[in-house]
Amino acid sequence: MTFTSFFPSRTVAIYMARLFLVRTFAVLAALVLVLQALDLLSESGRILAFPGNGDAQVWHYVGLRVPQIIARFLPFSVLLGTILTLITMNQNSEIIALKGSGLSAHQVLAPLLVASMGIAVISFVFSDRVVARATATLDQWQKVDYGRLPIDRGDRTNVWVRDGDDLIEVAQIRGRGNAARLGGVTLYDRTGGNLVAVVHADHGRRVAGGWAIWPANRFDVAKGTVTQLGTAVVAKNVRPDQFTLSSVDADGLSFGALKSAIADLSDAGRPTKALEGSLWHKLSGPLSAVLMPLLGAVAAFGIARSGKLFIRAVIGMALGFAYFVADNFALAMGNLGAYPPFLAAWAPFLLFFLIGEAVLIRSEE
């Protein structure tokens, strides 16, 4: 049997794929529209509360939030698109005709599986190139209460580092390693737990023996005086990774950037298990679209031949919901360290793949 003979026919394959894709993206558009409208009801007040914000900022928020909603609900839209497609074909006796012509259940589903693979690839690229950047930008914007948006989308913001008794706050960090650039540096000089002075500077960079900050000024707490220091070297015991890797948000990084951050953390001797699980999930998450035709196949064939069509559709949706619940649970267990990273990301996928295959095999009996 050749690869092309696995499909019912070119005409039928294109027909089924078109039905599936149209219904999938129609459901996705409806979900995005409704969920974005509900989200705006809770966030528009906060956006407009900042002085100077108006309709432009609201639409900018929508532009950052919509990619997140699309990425989150695309697999569920694929599930609903599968169920709607198979229900329609079942009602029109098209599934019976395909089965009567000698096609197996796998051959009937083949066009949907191939189309869902294409959706999975698009989902990965979209999440890696668009969603990660939008998430990073939105997180920074929300940290400043929808005020002035930080310029660099890859920056880290509001980072705190401890150097002995001293505390260092950095408003924004660009770059990584020795090339890191600090912006808005505030050093709280403490002795024995008591605040002695506060040193502030607009810029900072890595130099031999510490971090050079400029133009720096020092406020003496006891005297109440301010002294201009020009360029000062501080944080002599602070490594670059303590600034740049103090808080790594997996959702705000692309696959490559997250992999590099994990490598840097590992080199610094810091735990990476939770981030490794998120890295694997950046692959298994989009690939979950391929599972949905298998889980929704019960709407076309059913486990019990006497089952009603509505019951079959409910079973298909229940299987899909169960997968999303199991996926979130496994990822949470991976973040807690209870599951190994690979198992946390891939166990639900493999489990429900077997369940979907069991449905198809049962339908062949």
From TrEMBL:
Gene Ontology terms: biological process: lipopolysaccharide transport; transmembrane transport
InterPro entries per UniProt: LptG (IPR030923), LptG/LptF_permease (IPR005495)
Domain of life the protein comes from: Bacteria
Keyword Transmembrane carried by entry: yes
Gene Ontology CC terms: ATP-binding cassette (ABC) transporter complex
Primary localization class, coarse: membrane
Gene coding for it: lptG
Descriptive protein name: LPS export ABC transporter permease LptG
Membrane topology listed for this record: Multi-pass membrane protein
TM ranges: 12-38, 69-87, 108-126, 283-302, 309-326, 338-361
Keyword terms, alphabetized: Cell membrane, Membrane, Transmembrane, Transmembrane helix
Subcellular location(s) of the protein: Cell membrane
Span of the signal peptide: none
Source organism of this protein record: Sphingomonas ginsenosidivorax
